[in-house]
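ok new one. same drill as before - structure tokens go in, u give me an amino acid for every spot. 513 of them this time. try not to just spam alanines like last time pls lmao
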């Protein structure tokens, strides 16, 4: 069992979110958080006894906020809110996303700014620790007033309704799963239903997961680019530090430094690094790889800055202030997160697009500098990697469509009370699909480049790229007559997704940034 993550009044770290979401870590509530929640809950209960209307406590919601709710109907008000807002549909959202979302909502509850009872936060912690995952459908959030429908499906499970997956992944009624884990369903009181659904936790959780994925995939993009530069008889001189310093973007310098290290000691590169080499300069997809992968890193850094701001936030509406007021606000609007989710989708599409262009160069005898057409063993009889590039092209085309921003769209809702929405949840969902596509595109480049390096024998690749080639060869055979190609692509996709290709290079030259 992984070490538990302690949730207090301060912000979580990205690593804590990843440990809960991806490694199954349990969570504990800090005593300080319990104390703060109890203190602010007293303010909510005092206002609930007041005759004046307080949004979320004694009124309806959204466009129905003008309706005053008498005390005897307020428990029903909160229960009805969760039931009505749990209106999603479509396929289930992934377990890691739901766990991240639950943890992030718990973190906001623990700040005391939402005014819920400690018992409500304790129920969230108990579900996460027991490995119970509410079933959350994919469609339903507009990314404004928070991820309302997804968070409502989570809250519904906490009250003992709806469906969940237990720790074994079995689909069961929430009431049964809670009973088996010894968790008492929550009966919501004033303001608590609203506090459970008014946050950007779903889109933020997916942003943090995407950032983690890109920290693995961007160094892999440097690896596959280096393999292609090598296999296509490109030069490493363009990656020299003094040339990169002429345009001092941090990400560019990092990517170029990675490629210098990856290509060091290559017999293939050295074989044509002579004054009589007829190649004047390489194509953009080779020469400009650090500029593109570097800009991707700088975009990722900005996205992580936004994520850090969100992790330090207490998002609810209304919110309980330090002096005990309950105030409406607009902090639930998902625009800051939606923008960077869309930006990262653009980045992913462009990095993958450059990868596909390098693969295509390997397959064209007019541009591959001596390699057989399509890297085929017997061209004409064999087609080699011809259709592997088709697969890449199909994925890249899809990535370009997914790069169209969701955040520029807005469909007014709630009788025009919510007349501008962020669509950040949609931006996050398409980014997850984009990252999966990028992984597949880079894997196909790695598979093709490994074949190209083999065909340069007896010249040997660099120790680092050779280690990546060898990792592929342990799963996939070398050049020869055509074989069933889909399983070979699938094997290398697994190596790329698991980080095995990255680790193979780092085992030789150390960590790549």
């Amino acid at each position: 069992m992984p070490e538990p993550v302690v949730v207090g009044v301060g912000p979580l770290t990205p690593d804590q979110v990843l440990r809960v979401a991806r490694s199954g870590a349990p969570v504990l509530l800090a005593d300080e958080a319990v104390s703060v929640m109890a203190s602010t809950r007293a303010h909510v209960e005092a206002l609930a006894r007041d005759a004046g209307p307080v949004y979320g406590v004694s009124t309806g919601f959204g466009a129905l906020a003008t309706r005053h709710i008498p005390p005897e109907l307020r428990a029903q008000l909160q229960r009805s809110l969760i039931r009505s807002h749990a209106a999603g549909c479509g396929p289930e959202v992934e377990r890691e996303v739901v766990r991240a979302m639950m943890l992030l909502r718990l973190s906001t509850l623990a700040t005391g700014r939402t005014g819920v009872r400690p018992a409500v936060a304790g129920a969230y912690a108990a579900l996460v620790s027991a490995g119970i995952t509410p079933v959350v459908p994919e469609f339903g959030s507009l990314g404004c007033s928070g991820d309302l429908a997804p968070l409502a499906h989570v809250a519904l499970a906490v009250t003992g309704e709806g469906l969940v997956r237990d720790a074994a992944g079995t689909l069961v009624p929430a009431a049964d799963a809670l009973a088996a884990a010894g968790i008492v369903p929550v009966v919501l009181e004033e303001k608590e239903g609203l506090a459970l659904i008014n946050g950007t936790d779903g889109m933020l959780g997916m942003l943090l997961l995407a950032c983690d994925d890109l920290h693995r995939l961007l160094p892999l993009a440097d690896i596959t680019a280096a393999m292609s530069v090598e296999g296509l008889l490109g030069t490493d001189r363009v990656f020299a530090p003094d040339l990169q310093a002429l345009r001092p973007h941090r990400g560019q310098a990092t990517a170029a430094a990675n490629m210098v290290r990856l290509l060091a000691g290559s017999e293939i590169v050295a074989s044509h690094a002579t004054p009589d080499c007829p190649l004047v300069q390489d194509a953009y997809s080779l020469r400009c790889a650090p500029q593109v992968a570097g800009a991707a890193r700088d975009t990722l850094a900005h996205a992580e800055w936004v994520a850090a701001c969100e992790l330090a936030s207490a998002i609810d509406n209304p919110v309980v202030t330090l002096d005990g007021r309950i105030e409406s606000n607009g902090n639930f609007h998902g625009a800051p997160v939606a923008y960077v989710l869309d930006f990262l989708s653009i980045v992913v599409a462009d990095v993958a697009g450059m990868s596909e262009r390098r693969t295509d160069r390997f397959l064209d005898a007019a541009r591959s500098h001596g390699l057989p057409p399509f890297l085929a063993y017997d061209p004409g009889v064999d087609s080699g990697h011809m259709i592997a590039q088709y697969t890449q092209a199909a994925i890249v085309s899809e990535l370009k469509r997914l790069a169209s921003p969701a955040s520029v769209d807005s469909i007014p809702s709630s009788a025009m009370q919510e007349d501008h929405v962020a669509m950040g949840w949609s931006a996050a969902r398409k980014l997850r699909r984009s990252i999966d596509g990028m992984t597949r595109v880079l894997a196909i480049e790695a598979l093709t480049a490994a074949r190209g390096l083999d065909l340069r024998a007896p010249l040997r690749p660099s120790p680092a790229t050779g280690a990546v080639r060898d990792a592929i060869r342990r799963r996939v055979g070398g050049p020869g007559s055509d074989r069933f190609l889909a399983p070979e692509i699938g094997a290398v996709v697994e190596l790329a997704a698991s980080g095995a290709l990255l680790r193979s290079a780092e085992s030789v030259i150390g960590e790549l940034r």
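The mean pLDDT is 94. and btw DSSP finds 20 helices and nine strands in the chain.
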